[in-house]
Automatic annotation (TrEMBL):
Belongs to the Nudix hydrolase family. This is 8-oxo-dGTP diphosphatase. GO terms for biological process: DNA repair; DNA replication. PROSITE patterns: NUDIX (PS51462), NUDIX_BOX (PS00893). It comes from Synoicihabitans lomoniglobus. CDD domains: NUDIX_MutT_NudA_like. Residues 3-130 form the Nudix hydrolase domain.
Length: 138
């Protein structure tokens, strides 16, 4: 079995919505939606990798506010370990632009079940729903 690839992703929140990005055609999981991020480089920690990837992919600066549990997912072609972080854009950040994706969308949690999200992201979404639910309880 091959060594899993370590991947970071950001659930960037704004006004009750989360940013999702559509993968380009001709790549793994073509045209499916994901949380922006990417592979960790050797020796990089999750936060460093995530700041770098978000800058490369979206041209944005983020502040990480929470960590969700890492989850492993085995696709036919590759096994990944996804390291999700909740974040928001910093006050001085540029608006996100899809430098590497086909499209970006800010979605409410209620809409996200309709989205063709990468399979590895489904447990991430469940953990994020739990986090939001706990945060909204008195
Ligand atoms: N960034 C990101 N990648 C995800 C998510 N869910 C998921 O299955 N992945 C998978 O994790 C891997 C992340 O790699 P990536 O984004 O750096 O790489 P990529 O396929 O665009 O390739 P490349 O950067 O080597 O050209 C891909 O296989 C991607 O399909 C997610 O929410 N965010």
């Amino acid at each position: 079995m091959t060594t899993p690839i370590q991947v970071c992703c950001a659930l960037i929140e704004r006004a009750g919505r989360v940013l999702i990005a559509q993968r380009p055609p001709g790549k793994h999981l073509a045209l499916q939606w994901e949380f922006p991020g990417g592979k960790l480089e050797p020796g990089e920690d999750v936060a460093t990798a995530l700041h770098r990837e978000i800058q490369e992919e979206l041209g944005c600066d983020i502040k990480i506010t929470a960590a969700l549990s890492a989850c492993e997912h085995r696709y036919d072609a590759v096994t990944i370990v996804l390291h999700p972080r909740v974040a928001h854009l910093t006050a001085g950040s540029s608006e996100p632009h899809p430098h590497e994706h086909v499209a970006l969308r800010w979605v409410a949690l209620a809409e996200i079940a309709e989205i063709d999200l990468a399979a590895a992201d489904l447990p991430v979404l469940a953990a994020y729903r739990d986090l939001r639910k706990k945060a909204s309880q008195p």
